[in-house]
UniProtKB/TrEMBL annotation:
Residues 531-729 form the BPL/LPL catalytic domain. It comes from Lepidothrix coronata. One of its GO terms (cellular component) is cytoplasm. GO terms for molecular function: biotin--[biotin carboxyl-carrier protein] ligase activity. Belongs to the biotin--protein ligase family. It holds the Pfam family BPL_C. Keywords: Ligase. This is Biotin--protein ligase isoform X2. It comes from the Eukaryota.
Length: 802
């Protein structure tokens, strides 16, 4: 059997009862460390029940779990004696090995945990006192852990089930793991990138025979600090599973829909989300191995399934009902057909803040009082804003082990694109409440014990030097030869770039130093197609030399060290899939979600030119270019995308879906301008995106317009912008303003000047320098300026600069 060296424990989560926390309990020489990979049963159609004629070996009875890594496959690091590891291996070969989490064991490999990693873990692990305090805060009362990790003794196994207290054992490990990151990671062999040898393919001759007593007595150790400091926790290393029950609905689309909404809310690194099929409810051991059950079906719940769900609650489980038929105790479901699939205003009660109002699609059901003796266990969290004040979200408790359920009859899991929205008014109401919908769903999940904290920032990735024109690419490489040092470094105060022909996975990428791979043949990305970009870029100069990154700090920084020296015909552009430090107006920093078009473009403008004398106009030209990149495509002319002065892109006059930031530097008689622009293309949440508008248009008009992609629209925006600049340089503002007014949101809008109580004025247009013109009755027309984020058109507030 191949032994892997594992000194990289980054992205693994430490179990609180793991010996890693206690250095004196680290592996002794006679024990074997190993990794078990398991997969969900449905992944390989493994729906059959275990063969009852075979003696099942339970994984946790033969080893001690140390750490886990959520995902598919789910991975567990554990340690076992040589004999117990052999027993596991034989059971695995004979398909008798049962995982505690109900999943199917897929691979097993022994690993060597490097001493340096263990020492560093021992140093980084919080002290025992801190650990036990955290456990006290979140774990319901129960008996103290005995000997920790080695499993149950024969004496314990022989006790009748009702005499033990493991029925009360809480399964919730939410928030109880510690992410391990070692400073020596880059020197390690990464387990997930290595080939794991499966025991199934190892020679059985290498595995010792099982002893006659196949129950294999397991040693029990005493650990006073665990006994005194911690409540009972999950000794079997149960994973933080979230299960979604859809009844008999087999459509994969429904499961993917609900799962994607949950993944947007919870810390994706901490939870694994699976579907609980109807046939698994009574059969599989999911009750003891799940943190949360989401019930998202309107179908009636059978008596047997209802009993299982209540058993889950009695063992401390959590249930979230999403427009489901599940109810119990102090509430019953009452049908109101006139409400079915209609949009209504809801009022959400908030503990320490004012009530929140939002518009959601409701199921057609509300809650009413159930059993009198249980009504004290019911709390209304949200009601319809109608005369009856019908409850639509309620919180219930069950049993003495912390079981609780939140049941909803409003579609928190669906946005306007997921439903058959009948009117434009409903679409607008739902989209304008979308951010609040996500906020409410997160609050409900947090109250059920899940972590919705923002997970750690994505890892920065190398840059790639790309070009749609091979000749310009070669010319740029030729220019580089004389403009980098011997190591290929181009230094800059913001981000230094190190140009390399190829890049291995261990190359260091930091916010201040980033490798740039110059060989285009090695480039591939599922999020950006150079071919699509090439097909849609029709420019003379702009956007010809491209720096692309999957994850970077900010595209605004990447061109800083190049822009002043690169020949003008080599138009620079930086494109990223995600930014960790995106820059906005007023110095705002934001983490961009997947699905945005993110780019910074470099252009030069002569000082003594029409645009050089009116630099503020550039932001208006870019906003217009983004809108026209969509609305100039045949068939897409009526997509409701608009510009909002001074630098935003909007859906109608309702919601922002993009913005522009311009930085200019005057060098002698030339402006060097960095234009940062970002807009939502395919990310519906938390607000709205361009493809939402296309979907809406298709529903209303019966068309079949295709969704658009970021690579296409970035190229089209740059193409349109180059043409708009040429027109402006030739004809000045009058050559552009008719097109700008065609798409802007302000015609006839009324605003107040100076403050919210200031004088009223009417917007009439833009002056020759790009500033907003307003007409104040009795005082004529004035130009007003934005003032960072204090300019908020949605509140009708303009703060002029004097």
């Amino acid at each position: 059997m191949l032994v892997q060296f594992l000194d990289d424990l980054n992205r693994w989560s430490l179990l609180l009862i793991s010996p890693f926390i206690y250095p004196e309990k680290l592996l002794n020489a006679e024990h074997i460390a190993f990794v078990t990979e398991s997969i969900s049963a449905q992944t390989e159609n493994l729906q059959r029940a275990p063969d009852s004629s075979k003696e099942v070996v339970k994984w946790s009875d033969y080893c001690s779990p140390l750490a886990y890594k959520p995902g598919e496959p789910f991975k567990l690091i554990a340690e076992a004696s040589v004999d117990n590891f052999s027993s596991l291996g034989i059971a695995f070969l004979e398909d008798r090995l049962q995982m505690d989490n109900g999943m199917v064991p897929h691979k097993i490999v022994s690993v060597h945990l490097q001493e340096s990693a263990l020492k560093e873990l021992a140093q980084e692990a919080p002290p025992v006192k801190e650990q036990s305090t955290q456990m006290d805060e979140v774990t319901p009362a129960g008996t103290a852990v005995k000997s920790g990790l080695a499993g149950q003794s024969e004496e314990e196994k022989s006790k009748p089930e009702e005499e033990g207290d493991h029925e009360e054992e809480p399964n919730n490990l939410s928030g109880e793991h510690h992410h391990l990151h070692l400073s020596s990671c880059h020197e390690c062999l990464q387990l997930e990138n290595s080939t794991i040898e499966s025991v199934k393919f190892a020679s059985a001759e290498n595995i010792p025979e099982l002893p006659d007593d196949s129950s294999s007595k397991l040693e029990e150790e005493k650990d006073d600090c665990l006994e005194k400091g911690m409540k009972r926790v999950n000794l079997a290393g149960k994973p933080p599973n979230v299960l979604i029950y859809l009844g008999s609905e087999r459509a994969k689309g429904k499961f993917e829909q609900v799962r994607s909404v949950l993944q947007e809310c919870v810390d994706a690194e901490s939870y694994t989300i699976y579907q609980l099929h109807q046939e698994q409810v009574l059969r599989d051991p999911w009750i003891d191995n799940s943190l949360l059950l989401v019930i998202a079906t309107e179908e009636p719940i059978s008596e047997g399934n209802h009993k299982q769900f209540m058993k889950f609650l009695s063992k401390g489980g959590k249930i979230l009902g999403l427009s489901s038929s599940f109810a119990f105790g102090g509430v019953r479901i009452k049908r109101k057909n006139k409400l079915r699939r209609t949009v209504h205003e809801l009022v959400v009660s908030k503990k320490d803040s004012p009530e929140m109002k939002l518009d959601l699609m409701v199921s057609g059901c509300v809650f009413e009082e159930g059993r009198k003796e249980d009504t004290g266990k019911v709390k209304t969290l949200c009601r319809l804003n109608n005369a009856e004040k019908d409850p639509v979200i309620v919180h219930l408790t069950h049993g003495d082990s912390g079981g609780e359920a939140i049941l909803c009859q409003a579609h928190l899991e669906l946005d306007s694109n997921s439903m058959d929205v009948q009117t434009e008014e409903d679409f607008n109401l739902l989209k304008m409440s979308n951010t609040k919908r996500c906020e409410v769903l997160k609050e409900l999940l947090v109250s059920l014990g899940l972590s919705c904290e923002l997970s750690e920032l994505p890892t920065l990735t190398p840059l790639y030097l790309l070009s749609p024109d091979e000749e310009i690419h070669l010319a740029f490489l030729k220019w580089l030869e004389g403009n980098v040092d011997a190591e290929g470094l181009r230094a800059s105060s913001k981000v230094s770039l190190k140009f390399v022909s190829s890049c291995d996975s261990e190359a260091e990428v930091t916010p201040s130093l980033m490798p740039v791979v110059t060989e285009m043949g090695s480039f591939s990305s599922e999020h950006f197609s150079l071919k699509t970009y090439q097909q849609n870029l029709q420019t003379k100069k702009m956007g010809k030399i491209l720096l692309f990154s999957e994850v970077t700090t900010s595209t605004m920084n990447l061109l800083d060290g190049l822009m002043l020296d690169v020949p003008e015909e080599m138009g620079l552009i930086a494109v990223a899939v995600r930014q960790t430090q995106g820059k906005g107006r007023g110095g705002n920093v934001w983490l961009s979600p997947m699905g945005c078009a993110l780019s910074t473009l470099h252009i030069t403008i002569p000082l003594h030119s029409n645009l050089g004398q009116r630099i503020p106009f550039i932001q208006h030209l870019v906003s217009l270019a983004v809108v026209e990149s969509v609305r100039s495509i045949p068939g897409y002319e009526d997509i409701e995308l608009r510009v909002k002065w001074p630098n935003d892109i909007y859906y109608s006059d309702l919601m922002k879906l993009g913005g522009v930031l311009v930085n200019s530097t005057l060098m002698e008689t030339t402006f060097h301008i960095l234009i940062g622009f970002g807009f939502n293309v395919n990310n519906s949440n938390p607000t709205i995106c361009i493809n939402d508008l296309i979907t809406k248009f298709n529903k209303e008009e019966g068309t079949k317009l295709k969704p658009l992609t970021a690579d296409c629209l970035i190229a089209r925006t740059v193409t349109v912008l180059e043409r708009l600049i040429d027109i402006f340089q030739e004809k000045g503002p009058n050559g552009i303003l008719p097109r700008y007014y065609k798409y802007w949101v302000h015609s006839g809008k009324q605003v107040r000047l100076h403050s919210e109580d200031g004088p009223t004025a009417w917007i009439v247009g833009i002056d020759d320098y790009g500033y907003l013109q307003v007409h104040q009755e009795g005082k004529g027309i004035d130009s007003v300026h934005p003032d960072g984020n204090s300019f908020d058109m949605l509140r009708n507030l303009i703060v002029p600069k004097h």
